[in-house]
Amino acid sequence: MINKEQLMAVAASCSEYSPKKNDNSFLNYSGVSCENCSHYDGNRCMINVYDKVLNGLDQS
């Protein structure tokens, strides 16, 4: 199961991380997280890089 710490760690290490924008300004959020990425639909990474980045973190 994915937790908030994993979402934050993956986003911080992801080269594809792209913060969501709203009305030409960044959304208010508490930090870098997949939850705030334009490629994340709320349940999964739509460009399928989450697992690759997470596995890379596990190996370091």
Automatic annotation (TrEMBL):
<protein>
    <submittedName>
        <fullName>Uncharacterized protein</fullName>
    </submittedName>
</protein>
